[in-house]
Amino acid sequence: MIRSGLDPEAPTLFVSECVFMYMPDNETRRLLSALSATFRNSCVCQYEPIVGNGDPFGQMMEENLSKAGVAGADSGLLKVRSNQDHVNRLYQAGYTISTACDMYAAYETIMTNQQRRHASRSEFLDELEEFVLIMKHYSFSMGSTSEFYIGRNLCMLGKDSRLGFDEKRSIARIE
């Protein structure tokens, strides 16, 4: 990335959407560590599934993805099973502040009332219970290096949060 002209000193946001679930967890950890060490003014934003620890929907999700050949025993999907696991992985990779919540909490606390009204008009939201169940099995997590002021503000909880991470429904780790 640096050889192609990306400035490691510039504030940088890395976005991952359902990528790390497919990768061996040790490779993801190595990549995240390299990013935080190289790009000292960086923030990582991730959207990943969380299969939980034994609830029926999570078990079904895990079984279906395993049958499809998506989830190997060392995959991020099976190794990083909760919001707390996402927060810990980011923190261990060198992101000095990390935050996570499930997507239903994000829907309720990060999205505005207008955005929720717009989403509720979507046809697929006919079954609210199913929507809630699915959303609780996906994680929105962020990690920021200590030097990246904007990233730190994005990862904060409660009234200091720029994204609306709720203190009661989000997990954070701050150095």
From TrEMBL:
One biological process term in Gene Ontology: methylation
InterPro entries reported for this sequence: LCMT1, Ppm1/Ppm2/Tcmp, SAM-dependent_MTases_sf
Keyword flag Mitochondrion: no
EC number: 2.1.1.233
Keywords, in A-Z order: Methyltransferase, S-adenosyl-L-methionine, Transferase
Catalytic activity: [phosphatase 2A protein]-C-terminal L-leucine + S-adenosyl-L-methionine = [phosphatase 2A protein]-C-terminal L-leucine methyl ester + S-adenosyl-L-homocysteine
Highest taxon of source: Eukaryota
Pfam family for this entry, one: LCM
GO molecular-function term, one example from the UniProt record: protein C-terminal leucine carboxyl O-methyltransferase activity
Family designation: Belongs to the methyltransferase superfamily. LCMT family.
Protein name, as recorded: [phosphatase 2A protein]-leucine-carboxy methyltransferase
Species of origin: Fistulifera solaris
